[in-house]
Specification:
single chain; eight-stranded mixed β-sheet; 23 strands
Length: 504
């Protein structure tokens, strides 16, 4: 019989920590809504798996290593290999820098921030790790007999964010950087011009649910997997769980104090906002949310309406699926897990790309920090420049080191719980790859988990499709991709091999 355990820890803070998710530093001025880490343990026959979802942008390998070490120190019965930590790709949570040899602020170590109050990221790192470990331990220790059910519904949680044009939009430019990185596609590109052709791919409407129940068969929680990062509030100077906060609040009103474990499905080319129909959307929000009171400190109030709209769709999908899914509560089902390292084809830096970025280094090194009376503005501009310098140096470094190893090494997890499966990867994975996995998976439903933490390695970076790489643009250019589209195909096949082995 299944044993199921849940736990949740608040990871909000009122201190002004740098916020992750952008190429410049914002910092938290207030808590708009709370952020959490949520743990779920599922066990049967002595086999256990622990999912930990975190309301942050990404999970550095140092976090995973520290969490596993702390958990193992306290409870040797937990297999650290059976812990899968994912990020919801929330852009309004503190940076997770341990303050190690790369510097307290990572690539922003050299930033001047006089006049702007910033707390040490390393301080938040320790707090975050301790909360993650406690959530895992509490969920494992609270496991008791229970049931699961599952199903899927529909919600438009995201849209393709890459506008494709009839021509290369850099062909009239003399800017070499643009020609190397941009092309006939652009993230959040304009759609109201004659050159606009189409969005590069469609939306993914599927929402996957796994519900859990206690021994009394009452609902205790749900895993909700949507192909969308939670980044509507990505420009704000506040702590926020984004649309997941609205989902939690809305479901609590309907179903009581249940646990919600959010997972970001494959969404490397998707975002929780549309790129056309702007006037109709503005009218929709103006009328639909006329009575919503907004916080005075918001930079872009429209995104609050957009995230509420997304949350309402997820809740509606829950309301649709739960009544029929709960008719089949399962307990005598296998819980199996595999973890495997695989090598993926690297995206190598060409000689032309290296020559350009090597010669451009002096441009960044000679650029002095901006200093005005507006210190917050200075922080934003200076950290943008630092990011550009860091990107430039990374390209040069990648060129020099790219032949030191043949492949990009990554870790994938696959999990079987009865007739459903979970498959994790570290990337911002384009939607097409997830469709290939789900379509060929032997399981009834397959939950793809992107932005899963890697031991000793950074998470993130995109795996783009071949058509995207041809069009270039952010998420499909040399800055964004450490792995080629062929590497994405290898990831698909390796994942399917593991899923097929679990199904035997």
């Amino acid at each position: 019989m299944l044993k199921i355990g849940w736990s949740k820890q608040d990871i909000s803070t009122d201190k002004p920590f740098p916020l992750g998710g952008q190429a410049y530093i914002r910092f938290s001025r207030f808590v708009l809504d709370p952020i959490y880490v949520t743990a779920l343990t599922v066990e049967n026959g002595g086999n256990h798996i622990i999912f930990l979802s975190t309301d942050v942008s990404d999970i550095p390998g140092s976090v995973l290593n520290s969490v596993k070490t702390e958990v193992s120190r306290i409870n040797a019965d937990i297999n650290p290999l059976n812990i899968i930590i994912n990020a919801t790709h929330c852009h309004s949570a503190p940076m997770l820098s341990p303050g190690d040899t790369v510097g307290e602020y990572g690539k922003f170590s050299e930033l001047p921030h006089d006049g702007v109050p910033l707390s040490r990221p390393g301080e938040y790192f320790d707090f975050f790790v301790s909360r993650c470990a406690k959530a895992i331990l509490d969920s494992f220790n609270s496991r008791s007999e229970g049931y699961i059910s599952y199903g899927y519904g529909f919600a438009t949680t995201s849209h393709n964010r890459r506008a494709v044009y009839f021509k290369d939009m850099t062909e009239d430019s003399d800017n070499k950087l643009l020609k190397l990185t941009e092309g006939s596609a652009k993230m959040y590109g304009r759609t109201d011009i004659p050159e606009f052709s189409h969005l590069e791919s469609g939306a993914d409407p599927y929402v996957n649910f796994m519900f859990t129940f206690g021994a009394d068969k009452k609902l205790t929680g749900a895993v909700i997997n949507v192909p969308s990062p939670s980044q509507n509030i990505e420009l704000e100077y506040s702590i926020s769980a984004d649309f997941w906060h609205d989902v939690r609040v809305g479901l609590a009103e309907r179903y009581g104090d249940i646990y919600i474990l959010p997972q970001c499905g494959a969404a490397g080319d998707l975002a929780p906002r549309a790129r056309y129909y702007d006037k109709a959307e503005e009218r929709r929000f103006r009328l639909k949310y006329a009575d919503v009171k907004l916080h005075d400190g918001l930079v872009n109030p429209t995104e609050i309406f957009r995230r509420k709209d997304i949350a309402e769709q997820i809740i509606a999908a829950f309301d649709d699926v739960y009544p029929w899914a709960k008719k089949e509560k399962l307990s005598d089902v296998p819980v199996l897990h595999t973890v495997k390292e695989i090598g993926l084809e690297k995206r190598c830096i060409t000689q032309e790309e290296y020559d350009y970025f090597d010669s451009a280094r002096l441009d960044y090194e000679d650029k002095p920090p901006i200093s005005t009376d507006d210190k917050v503005y200075d922080l934003k501009r200076n950290t943008r420049n630092i990011s550009a310098k860091y990107d430039n140096e990374t390209i040069v470094k990648r060129y020099k080191e790219q032949y030191n190893s043949e492949s990009f090494i990554t870790e994938i997890h696959t999990v079987r719980i009865g007739d459903i499966a979970f498959a994790s990867n570290q990337f911002e994975l384009y939607m097409d790859f997830a469709h290939r996995i789900a379509a060929r998976s032997p399981f009834v439903q397959t939950f793809i988990i992107e932005l899963a933490a890697q031991p000793g390695r950074p998470s993130g970076s995109y795996i783009a499709t071949e058509r995207a790489v041809k069009c270039r643009g952010y998420s499909a250019n040399l800055f964004s991709n450490y792995v080629t589209p062929n590497g994405g195909t290898k990831l698909v096949e390796a994942t399917l091999d593991e899923l097929n082995n679990l199904y035997k």
